[in-house]
Amino acid sequence: MGDSKDKKKKGVQRQLMPEQPPRERAQNFQPVTLGYTEEQALAEASRCLQCKKPSCVPGCPVSIDIPEFIKKIKKGKFEKAAREIKKYSLLPAVCGRVCPQESQCEGQCLLGKKNRPVAIGNLERFAADYEAEHGDAELPEMPPKTGHSAAIVGSGPAGLAAAGDLIRIGHDVTVFEALHKPGGVLVYGIPEFRLPKAIVKQEIDYLQRLGVKIQCDYVIGKIKTIDQLLKEDGFCTVFICTGAGLPMFMDIPGENLNGVYSANEFLTRTNLMKAYEFPDFDTPVKRLRRVAVIGGGNVAMDAVRTSLRLGAEKAYILYRRTKAEMPARAEEIEHAEQEGVEFHFLTAPIKIIGNEKGWVSGVECIRMDLGEPDASGRRRPVPVKGSEFVIEADEVIVSIGTSANPIIAQSTPDLKLNRRGYIEVYGNEGCYTSKKGVFAGGDIVTGSATVILAMGAGRLAARLIDNYINTGDWPEIR
Prior knowledge:
Oligomer: single chain
Mean pLDDT: 93
Distance between the termini: 60 Å
Structural class: alpha/beta
Helix content: 25-40%
Number of helices: 17
Low-confidence stretches: 1-5
CATH class of the largest domain: Alpha Beta
CATH superfamily of the largest domain: FAD/NAD(P)-binding domain
């Protein structure tokens, strides 16, 4: 009987996510993926094997009970499915859109061994969207207040996840955000066509309904220090999760020419400051014809796809390895290819060329070969002598990674950093810093990573913060 059930489930094909046609979407900022219909969600949920020992759950950094929420979708209990997810993650509409499920929960799906895995991310998005479209999200029963308070510095995924867990324990939570809107990378980094800002606002509004306080335009390290939060403002503890927002450049000639952006600046202007709606929003990004984006990660894909939508006739990716080594999600690469982005693999810029007016006119590059693997496990690119060539471009966007912003470290001298400038953490589970009562997590500790990994760090920090508030326990720091 069990075998026939499994065969029936395997007979249902994975439901394809509806999308805007590539030519249309490359000219607008509307969502690329349109979400499942109810019929598609029911069909996809029916594919789940409901394993007794589900391997998908350990693959989720926030440990969502995936079989349980999918079971509720299968029964048509869509809002209950959303509430099930929210026991573990208060950002399901976000995670359903941007998490790399293929390398996490879906990558561990048993069905994926002989078939395509269950579309867990698409189902998570469906449940969250259904709840949002059918009335206000139901608030859980809240515990009595503990009388203790926590400060969270940074309102990105790690900060929001920690805030959600701490407020549901009963602690008072205040989140300090340096920019004028909360959300961190969710609002300044990820484009509207991949993650609509209304979705982020919806998730943050829910946290505020739970009682989380958010103060924007508040730069910790400038307006107040970590010590002042602890000693003057009465917070029991501080969680630093400011991300890794300091752009890195290549240190090649021509990087100071007009028309050279960091991906951070370019995307912040476009996303958070709405340059794509100029002149309605007075934050211009110069529209240029040929845009070269240097890098191969998700941020590079966001930047190059945004360039097309801003009117570029040609948009290039310059990447020093091959497609197989690109760290971007396969879906993002595929979408970029469909939209007309040109990929130049095994290509490394060595100079940005300018015209007599100081504007970019091209990029001098060199061909690369792949040698032995480096520390990342990927084969190291090696220049091919005498292979230099020029790509015409009037805008260059550098997307080769970011590092830690030094503002908090400069104003907190007893906070230890590692050699790369990230906050050093201690203890068996991490998150404890060299300063008692101060925790850290997310990209400010690990360097640039994914939204869901930052959320996992936030949930871990919340658990350790609660333990510290209750016991005062702190590991010995040497």
